[in-house]
Batch of 3 targets.
Target 1
Amino acid sequence: MEEQLLRATAERVAERLAGRKRILFITGAGLSAESGLPTYRGIGGLYSTADTEHGVPIEVALSGPMFRQKPELTWHHIARLEEAVRGAKPSEAHHLIARLEARHDVVVLTQNVDGFHRAAGSSNVIDIHGDCHLLLCTRCDFRERREDYVGMQLPPLCPECDAIVRPEVVLFEEALPEVQLARLDHELREGFDAVFSIGTTSLFPYIAGPVVQAVRRRRLSVEINPDRTAVSEVVEVKLACGAHRGLSAIFEPQL
């Protein structure tokens, strides 16, 4: 996106935000990519071929049914993903969103499981797909937080009951956590003055839905994404650029 056009569009969004306090930021992989996190597939991805070395697609390897059948296989790929992102830190965009809490009532709905929004300082985060740093027992109430998986037995066993432990994330073919869905429903019923969709393809209805709701209620809706997505045609404003570039153009003057 040309700089002059970006600045003009960002200024228009900033003007529309004047006096608006309650903002929802919906974030996806494009935001964490600015922290250096790899994608599953594509250029630089961990899984650029159709199948994993186990002869199944990554979506099958990281699925609920596979975890129940062969937890060691699922954990192999979970650990591989964790190793690839180990040491990464929240991006400038994560920190900018967190800083906005000083001026706005900010809610973050994220598809990412890296925990970067909380690490950057955001306090109201709905991590709809979970957090890979949180582990829980599949049998008892044991839970723990780990910053990495270094030295961990795979699959890990619960120190209290010897059952298999898993990361508190939503695997493929698993239902979304009811607690997080209830939080999202509550926040949407409260309503938002503005909704930002950042770095997500918006393919899931619970990700695209808040944007569509904002459009129907004539609230400000903004997408920051270099690519076309499922909501690009419905949002009021489209910024075809990266997360930090778009956010800083809009918000930096007021911070």
Note: The longest helix spans residues 3-17.
Target 2
Amino acid sequence: MRSEIEEAVQLLQRGDDAALEQALALLQNTVFSFSMRVCGQREDAEDTMQEVLLKSVPHLPKFDSPKALVVWLYKVAKNSCLMSRRRSKFAPKQDLSLEELMPDRKELEQMGSGGNINPEAFAIRSEEAGRLRGAIQQLPPQYRIVLVLRDMEGLSDEEVAEITGLRSGTVRVRLHRARLFVRKELIKALKPSSGRAAVASRASSQEQLGKQQPRPARCKAMFAELSNYLDEQLDDSLCEELERHLKGCEPCEAFLSSLKVTVEQCRRSPAERPAREKAVELRRKVLADYERLVANNIRQ
């Protein structure tokens, strides 16, 4: 979405009516896509798109920085989404516990060598866009906003912090737990293999585990840092320590792979666009209102 906003700022700097309408079209796409990901309801996304555009037009000529427009636009859209009349559709407001999001021993065993849950199968299954949307909608809103802004809209931690009013450290914590939650929801859909292959798979996994006895306490410490590792935000010493652990703990390595796939699926999730007729009609209404406002100011 950042490229659309950068293009919109370039158009706005031209200062003519045609450029303004083109810029509004780009901003419509950005706001609608974000709102669909957060609200999950087309009616709410359309309402948010209209509200944000009506608020935006008088201020747009003031923006010469894409970053400033990014923060302002998403902040207005975020507030509108959270005040939606269908906000009861949101998951209950709650905190996500890292303890609850970590895999239990059974899942770790399945993720061991030759186990019946593997990153490849997970990647194939989770390509279903509807399942990903459903998992994201199950997130409590305060986590969903952070995940959508960071992994789906492509904003930085600093921009997400400015939009949400959170500290950067809190953004990182919520992002990691949101990723773990979505991963857990997606992996529920995986069906264990059956028959002789499954028996052989479990036997191989148990044999491997018997040789290298996993260390739950150490694994738990590693799980808390996996998003920082994926985003290359660990210092060198901690990064080396985590990589040493992964080399000796195959279930943790498989878990990291499945989390990485989750993040990639979020980032590749296609943006939804508003219905063309409604979008054109709204732009015309917004521009007409703006022209009347400008004319009134000139007469005064």
Note: The chain has two domains: 2-89+273-299, 98-268.
Target 3
Amino acid sequence: MNIKFTDLYKLVRNKKKLFNKISYLIKNSKFIGGEEVLSFEKNFSKFTGGKYCVSVANGTDALEIAIKSLNLSKGSEIIVPNNTWISTAEAVVSNNFKVVFCDVCLKDYTINLKDLENKINKKTSAIIAVHLYGNPANLSGIKKVIKNRKIKIIEDCAQAHGAYINKKHVGTFGAIGTFSFFPGKNLGAFGDGGAIITNSKKIKDFCLKMRNHGAMKKYDHSFSGRNSRLDTIQAGILNIKLKTYGKTISRRLYLAKLYFKELKILNKINLFQLNKKNQSAFHQFVIRTKYKNQLEKFLNKSGIETMTHYPYMLNELKFFNSNKKLKNSYKLGSQILSLPISEEHKKKEIIYICKKIKNFFNEK
């Protein structure tokens, strides 16, 4: 049996509706802005429970604009978890702030609260809480750590569409939340796309201007901004996908449950240990084992594609000039392995993957 890690074409439901929508928008010359984009912002705001939604060109722009909107003090430090996609740290550097890397919790790979306490100082102005792999970070714990301090929380929800903390959607706990609609995301467009969620009108208005050359309306420039707009075709695609997104999450939850059931008996791998009050979006299903490389080769020979998210930690990149060893994330990339999980995968495929993993460890 050959099992792809993911097949983006198979993931596309309602193909006829999507192609008809694209055709309609092209025929009517609807490419930038307009009702389709406004409709998506309204729909995504309702979906997340955030008061305001500002769509942008991609998830990296969402992070960069989010940081800029907070008007942080010059010379500030922003704390970022060490295991995340590079955009999280890039957004800090591009805003001319110092990025400080924090260790991760090995239960769910989100930010480590103990190390977070150690990293905070007088220069700390913000923390980016990344809901990595779709697993909600410990926002209540973070808020306790920064209690009575003027430190902003930015939520990086690029992998967490449909993730909840006590039935409240991620992205709505801090000052601002950011999302990506890259095609490989659970809620993916047919190209790049991103969004910002906030309950602050002041922040919302700034982001609206920032994405459009500093102007809310054409030629009404308040400051020097940038060009970062979600195009109309992507908004139309996302509007259609959002209507059935509940089924996407339900399927991923079902497949993740299968993995937990089949693999929990193995003592040589570590599975997610998630808070039962929360809901993960299971953008990835990650296992940890010191036999990672051997297991990866074994599964690939068995026709099973796997990936690593991520093969290196951010503080291992020389240009960040951060060589401090962090206990949990030190060489973590050599131990973590992402298994196939998406709504296009079948039960028998997940069972087959688990069977092969069991076979591998039975030989150890």
Note: The first strand starts at residue 52 and ends at 56.
